[in-house]
Every structure is written in C-alpha cells, then in structure tokens.
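Per reviewer request, we include the raw input and output of the structure prediction for the construct analysed in the revised manuscript.
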Amino acid sequence: MAIALGSSECPTPNGRFASGEQCDSYTECQDGNPVEKLCPDGLLFHQRTKATGECTYAPYSTCKERARLQPANGTEDCPRQFGFYPNGMRPSAVSTATAPTAWPA
C-alpha cells in the first residue's frame, strides 16, 4: 500500500507506509500525523505488513513500480552509503558499504 508523496492522510493512525514513486521514501504516521521520511542512502523501504515496514538492503526489498531514489551520497569505494557491491580485488567477492553512524530505529 503506497500513499501519495506529500499526502496529508494516514491509511491508519499509526504505522510506516511506502510513499509515492520513491523506493527509499516512506511516511511515518503517529496518532494520524504523517511525517515524510527517507531511508539512509542505499537502503530501500520494504513494506512488511499493511502498517509496518523498515529500511533494508536492496536484495531484501520489493519496490515494484517505485523505482525513483534519492541522489547518491557515496564514496570512492561505494556508490551509496549502504549496500552490497562487487569487490574490485576479487570478482567473486562482495564488499558491504556501511555509513559511519548508526541509523536510529
């Protein structure tokens, strides 16, 4: 269930809901008050149930038609702050990018 980005309504009074066309965006509703939020760079919002969801790595999310993402904020080694990327030293290895600070739950 996606609600329109910038919507002033919440599907239920409390919960997290996928927003509009952007896969790394969601609306958090508390007591019917919607607040638009973005996942940390490189993580995508995954709607687990009608009212719950979380930001997670791309392989664990289903965005379907919500293909748009926030601009990348990566480094020389990682295109985005979070993600799984091929390791340049060994083709079969994978590097994991993580931001230096933890994302609050």
